[in-house]
Amino acid sequence: MGAARLGVFQPLWSQRIMGEWYYAAARHGGTSAAMAEAEIAVLRDAWPGAEVPVKAGLEARLSLPDPADVHVLAAAIASSADGIVTMNAKDFPRNVLSEEGVIRIDPDALLMDALDHDPDGMRQIAEAVLAEANRLSGRSWEMRPLMKKARLPRFGKALVS
């Protein structure tokens, strides 16, 4: 979300997307649900216009390999989003998305684009993430292994190059 704060992209989501995040965290038990609820509140406060309504019936005309993901495409269409940020290539095929004028980009590629757009800003954000990871975990992470663990290998490599 640091890249969004830099203006690299505009975050958009539906109420259902946020609900899925909350319920996924709640299934993990412990403080996960409370943390997700707090994070959702922070996101909604930081980007008050990011939550988009999805017109009834839009999902009915859409089809994806996993029908449970159609609401994500519907939110992208309803908000006139350029793309969907996901690592789930299998369930968001580029050819289906392109029919709706939407691209799919994975988080690593998005952050590489952000690094090209604002190298200093993104490096500062990455350093803050590294410091917070070290604080929370009680260990001493290095940038590249942390980014690799976060499934951002190209971004991590670019940060230390």
Features:
single chain, 161 residues, mainly alpha, two-stranded parallel sheet, 57% helix, globular
Explain what the structure shows.
- It contains 9 helices and 2 strands; from the N terminus they run ααααβαβαααα.
- It has helices at 2-5, 15-27, 32-46, 70-78, 94-99, 107-117, 119-137, 143-149, 153-160, and strands spanning 83-85, 103-105.
- A two-stranded parallel sheet has the order 1-2.
- The longest helix is centred in the C-terminal third of the chain and has 19 residues, at 119-137.
- It is globular and about 50 Å long.
- The chain starts with a helix and ends with a helix.
Count of DSSP-assigned helices:
9
Span of the ends, CA to CA: 23 Å
Mean pLDDT: 94
- In terms of DSSP E residues, the strand content is under 5%
Number of beta-strand segments: 2
Structural class: mainly alpha
Order of strands, main sheet, comes to 1-2
3D shape:
globular
How much helical structure, as a percent, in the residues? 55-70%
Which residues form runs of ≥5 with pLDDT under 50? none
Largest sheet: 2 strands, parallel
Radius of gyration: 17 Å
* Helix and strand sequence: HHHHEHEHHHH
Helices and strands, with pairings:
Elements: H1 2-5, H2 15-27, H3 32-46, H4 70-78, E1 83-85, H5 94-99, E2 103-105, H6 107-117, H7 119-137, H8 143-149, H9 153-160
Parallel strand pairs: 1-2
Helix pairs in contact: 2-3, 6-7, 6-9, 8-9
Q: Summary?
A:
This protein is mostly helical and 161 residues long. It has helices spanning 2-5, 15-27, 32-46, 70-78, 94-99, 107-117, 119-137, 143-149, 153-160; strands at residues 83-85, 103-105.
